[in-house]
Specification:
Length: about 160
């Protein structure tokens, strides 16, 4: 997996999280996963197809998702949430849209052409995402609300 695919997602996630949560973002050590990746409990999945194909996950546990959604809603002068309800799920999906949109713009500017699927949000315990023939690079990030993992499994089509 080429670093040109990864950096735009890491940069976008850092920038967007800082902006919407008004906080510092600490990036952990990157690591590769070649087998099925367990999902932390709440994952927004975005598919990529074109010159680059694969998927990106924005992964976190339920408590972190509720706290991030609450912080985002509070910044819009809306009531915070206490559970991952429809508004909370829509807020996390929008966060994934914002991060992916910024990353895709950077990739398009580098000459890569591809389409995205709208984010799908999956929740639950003991779920795994299988990566057939594509290694996933995991980028852990810490914000005051908890840990978020940017899980990128992409490759050039060919």
């Amino acid at each position: 997996m080429r670093v040109e695919y990864i950096n735009p997602f890491v940069e976008a996630a850092t920038s967007i999280l800082r902006e919407v949560l008004q906080c510092d973002v600490t990036r952990g050590e990157l690591y590769l996963k070649s087998t099925a990746s367990p999902v932390l409990g709440v994952a927004a999945i975005i598919g990529l197809a074109g010159d680059v194909e694969g998927r990106v996950l924005l992964d976190m546990n339920r408590k972190t998702a509720v706290e991030i959604a609450s912080a985002m809603l509070a910044s819009m002068e809306m009531e915070p949430i206490t559970e991952l309800n429809d508004l909370g799920r829509a807020t996390i999906t929008e966060l994934a849209n914002m991060i992916t949109g910024q990353a895709v713009t950077k990739l398009h500017n580098l000459g890569f052409k591809f389409d995205l699927t709208p984010p799908a949000l999956v929740t639950g315990d003991n779920m795994e995402i299988s990566n057939t023939n594509v290694e996933a690079l995991i980028v852990p990030m810490e914000v005051p609300q908890g840990k978020i993992e940017i899980n990128v499994a992409v490759r050039e089509r060919g």
